[in-house]
Specification:
By secondary structure, the protein is mainly beta. The protein folds into 3 domains: 132 residues, Glycosyl hydrolase domain, family 43 (Tachylectin-2, Chain A, 5 Propeller); 100 residues, no CATH class; 117 residues, Tachylectin-2, Chain A (5 Propeller). Helices cover 12% and strands 37% of the residues. The protein has 5 helices and 21 strands. Strands 17-21-20-19-18 form a 5-stranded mixed β-sheet, with no helix packed on it. Strands 1-2-3-4 form a 4-stranded antiparallel β-sheet, with no helix packed on it. The termini are far apart. The structure holds beta-D-galactopyranose. The site of beta-D-galactopyranose has 10 residues, from strand 5 and strand 13.
Length: 389
């Protein structure tokens, strides 16, 4: 018997064909290429696996269990977008080109008076893993809500999972009532004229000697732009701009990474360095930093030492070529050791866009060792194969 075709049996194949076309269009190779990154294009919009510009500024990377985790400041659009409206973001990747949004690792608090209240300044978050406790430890630069950049604190949050959520623990000014190692007895009690005019030779001398260090001795040293570094022996260090951004401090963290031991040094007093990014190659420590011009770029500086405790020596600007004097319109945030490749380090910088902070761009460039000196050149489009030669 012949079955009479119904409307349903007539339209079904048409529907199927339509669905197939829609499916084909939505996963056409063009779309996949647009979503999938195969190289670094510094300064361009860098989309995550949801095709959204990555939102992790002033970032740092944790490598754990064959995965890279990128933590950064989640910025918002327009005026006020540089204060923390959302929190610290986290992305994960196994190839460094393609990043999956893992959500907000540390959300701001809605509680009035909380240190991390919405509207506070949360900058340059860094996460390290502590083998002993099995905890992921995040430190970040914190400015309390409504106080501009006056609080100058560092803050701690911990989690049992790399991606979080992180629990806020405390904020503090480090090394209260501790003098830096090798600080002379004589300077500890030296008196200074509080009216000394800034930027005069006498003032420089006083800063060099530790006038501001002394000023903050009781309550703890100022801590703004920061980074964390874990050495080969598992010891971790907190590196930050202190003394009104005039002097960098390197401080040792306790074995659980959740406190300061009180051991620290000052680097280049009155050198006016910030945005520290420390890395180590073949037993030598390198520290990259910027000058202090707010969101505007300036020339980077590089320092070198055989021991993290110094002496540190100045190596000048690591950038070469056009716009080297502006760090290619960026400011350092982290130097990333690429896993599985020898002598492979990536300079990670931010190209800030303070008028619309969410639009800030990422400047990732390979570090080359030219006659032993870490050197950074501009590259429009590059991939990890540069490290194979
Ligand atoms: C920069 C600093 C940034 C942010 C900014 C605020 O110098 O590196 O992290 O604090 O100032 O103006």
């Amino acid at each position: 018997m012949k079955v009479k075709p119904t409307i349903a049996s007539k339209t079904f194949p048409v529907l199927l064909a339509l669905l197939a076309i829609v499916a084909l269009i939505s996963c056409s190779p063009k779309e996949q290429v647009a979503k999938y990154n195969h190289s670094f294009k510094p300064g361009e919009i860098w989309v995550d696996t949801d095709s959204v510009h990555i939102n992790a500024h002033g970032g740092g990377i944790l490598y754990y269990n064959n995965t890279y985790y990128w933590f950064g400041e989640f910025k918002t659009a327009g005026k006020g977008g540089n204060s923390a409206q959302v929190g610290v973001s986290c992305y994960s990747s196994t190839d460094l080109y393609n990043w999956k949004n893992e959500g907000i690792a540390l959300p701001v608090s809605n509680e009035a008076g909380s240190d991390i209240e919405k509207g506070a300044v949360i900058e340059r978050p860094k996460v390290i893993y502590n083998e002993m406790t099995g905890k992921f430890v995040m430190w970040f630069h914190l400015e309390l809500k409504g106080q501009g950049y006056g609080a100058a604190r560092t803050a701690l949050a911990v989690s049992d999972k790399a991606t979080g959520p992180y629990t806020f623990v405390k904020s503090l000014r480090p090394n209260a009532q501790e003098w830096p190692v090798d600080y002379s007895e004589e300077l500890k009690t030296k008196e200074y004229d509080p009216e000394l005019k800034w930027w005069t030779p006498d003032w420089y001398k006083a800063i060099d000697e530790g006038m501001f260090l002394q000023r903050e001795f009781e309550g703890g040293q100022m801590a703004r732009d920061m980074q964390l570094f874990v050495d080969d022996d598992g010891k971790a260090y907190h590196i930050h701009a202190s003394e009104d951004n005039l002097t960098l401090h390197i401080s040792e963290l306790t074995d659980d990474y959740q406190d300061f031991t009180g051991k620290y040094i000052r680097i280049f007093p009155a050198g006016h360095n910030e945005a520290p990014a420390l890395f180590k190659k073949d037993g030598t420590y390198y520290l990259m930093a910027s000058g202090c011009t707010g969101w505007d770029p300036n020339a980077a500086r590089l320092f070198e030492a055989k021991s993290i405790w110094g002496p540190w020596e100045s190596m000048g600007n690591p950038c070469v070529g056009e716009d080297a004097d502006l760090t290619f319109h960026s400011q350092s945030t982290y130097i990333l050791p690429v896993q599985g490749k020898e002598d492979a380090f990536i300079y990670m910088g931010d190209r800030w866009t303070p008028k619309n902070p969410i639009d800030g761009r990422y400047i990732w460039l390979p570090i080359q060792f030219v006659a032993g000196k870490p050197t950074i050149k501009w590259a429009e489009d590059w991939d990890l194969s540069v490290f194979d030669n």
